[in-house]
Amino acid sequence: MQSETPLPRWFTDLLAHRRWVRRTRPFAHVYVRDVFEPRFYARLAAEYEQVRAERPQLFGKVANNYGASGVSLSELRDGPLEVFVSRAWHDLIAGVVGVTDVTGDVEGSVHHHPPDSPRGWPHSDLAPAWFGSRAPAKEAIALPDPAVDLKKGTRAAGVEARELVRAVAVLFYFGNPDWQPGDGGETGLYSAIGGPNPEPAIFVPPLNNSMIVFECTPRSWHAFAGGNTAVRNSVVMWLHQPRELAVRRWGGAGIAEW
To answer: Are 233 and 48 in contact (CB under 8 A)?
Structure first.
């Protein structure tokens, strides 16, 4: 685990300091078991269960034709889950992946898949995201502006916004029953998506307190594998980069417009 930015002690004390493994197949990604130390992980899982029990109205459908419901991390800033929208977490993730042009803008949510959720579709996550006009300070982060449509940038007259593109994706698994092979609910990573029924090259299991992190590229294809025999819960989030830099690197055609 490496980061170019010195991280505060309060934050590093939350981490388990286990090996963060870099993999190249089928595309570059980092896989981590035991991300957080056990006591803090238990607090994350407990907060999620409390939110599910006491504030179920926060959960809404994530997307059409997708089996998960979710709650934005913007709604979860009064407890342990706020760590995912901290500048320390942002800088750690950016440093590990080696992406230097991220802006401090963060978007994400907690996803809940009920048992036997349908399989998702392969996608790269290299997609636009619109944020408010004011960029965050170097030590801060910015969350989506409710006055600006996150995907399309639609907004009232006089409201200014910035068009960014997703740069880094994070999937952190937590609050799940003990997982065994055959239980389903993995994240599939694809080497190619040509043909009518592409199959993942590898499957990432939804083991509690584990995580996958990768740079969003035109070939970072992944999908929820479905077939889960129990619930699957995860934090799904993105760091962002200016659109002009993404176009310069990947070309405009590589960005998946909504």
So the answer is: yes
